[in-house]
Amino acid sequence: MQAAQQTDPMVETSPPDQPGEAAAQFYRHALAALASAGVPHLVGGGFAFAHYTNVHRYTKDLDLFVRPQDAEWAIGTIARAGYRAEIVAPHWLGKAHSGEAFIDVIFSSGNGVCVVDDEWLVHAEPGQVLDVSVLLSPAEEMIWSKAFVAERERYDGADIGHLLHARARGLDWERLFRRFDPHWHVLLSHLVLFRFAYPSQRDAIPRWVMQALLARLQRELDSPAPEEPLCQGTLLSARQYLPDVEQWGFRDARLDPPVQMTAADIAKLTREIREDEADARNKAGGRR
Question: 182-218: b or e for each residue (b if 16 or more CB lie within 10 Å)?
């Protein structure tokens, strides 16, 4: 008798790239409720990423994007559909829950930079999510918002690389350049990394984009550095640059226009970070 084939314990089965049926029903019901109420909304996150890049991965939630003026409307609509829903971060995020499944209702970004405005809706792309016809967040705005996600436990640089790999030749580069304008260093950094990751595709980035960004860098090199200590790292990581603004005397760039965060928003976020750190320490202590 042939011996049974053994499974290599080091090889893991890939997780499903679609939610379970209970979660899918929740997402479909919420999408139907928003459509019926006429709430303008877009689907982003893993569903939109798969549409643009054909990279499929486990989808633990549904990301919906709405304008700030529609956030309460969207949350209220989902709540009236029978789910627990609330604004959890006044400057950018609401959440809705059904069992272990949840929906993020996003109307800005955690750093207050990437506010959802009319252009997100104007340039949205039609798609299908869980057999529901939806509008998807534009690839340009996905790149813009993902570019600032650089926490130690999450970095979206590879997502940007894959979006550029799939869509660079058809992007609205003028709009994307304008989106990044006050924070052009961030766009330049991701484009340089794209050229590193995909040397054979470096010509997918229009020449004028690189020239314009490098011209800005050259002007900066030829200019004296600002005297006032400013930390823009907080726009990339709310956690890792706290010593700079709390102990070392740097001014927090999240308090400067055009960033849409208040001192109260920052204090709430920082308090949650400290609570998470305390919980992690307590759990680590309990395992000893």
Answer: ebeebbbbbbeebbebbeeeeebbeeebeeebeeeee
pTM of the model: 0.91
Asked if residue 144 belongs to a domain, the reply is no
What are 105's strand-pairing partners? 64, 94
Q: pLDDT tens digits, the chain, 288 residues: what are they?
A: 343 333 343 333 334 467 899 999 999 999 999 999 999 999 999 999 999 999 998 778 999 999 999 999 999 999 999 999 999 999 999 999 999 999 999 999 999 999 999 999 999 999 999 999 999 999 999 999 999 999 999 999 999 999 999 999 999 999 999 999 999 999 999 999 999 999 999 999 999 999 999 999 999 999 999 999 999 999 999 999 999 999 999 999 999 999 999 999 999 999 999 999 998 888 877 665
SS3 content of the chain, % helix, strand, coil (to 5): 50, 15, 35
d(CA 276, CA 253): 23
Q: Distances from the Cα of 110 to the Cαs of 24, 98, 117, 216, in angstroms?
A: 26, 23, 15, 27
The distance from CA 23 to its chain's CA centroid, rounded to whole angstroms, is: 21
Domain boundary among 89, 120, 137: 137
* CATH code, domain with 39: 3.30.460.40
Range of the domain at 245: 230-282
The Cα–Cα gap between 109 and 131 comes to 28
Q: Strand locations in 100-243, DSSP E?
A: 101-106, 125-129, 132-136, 230-231
Q: Supply 64's token pair.
A: 């919906």
3-state secondary structure of 4: coil
Do residues 137 and 43 touch, judged by C-beta distance below 8 A?
A: yes
Q: Among residues 34, 175, 201, 47, which one has the least CA distance to residue 118?
A: 175
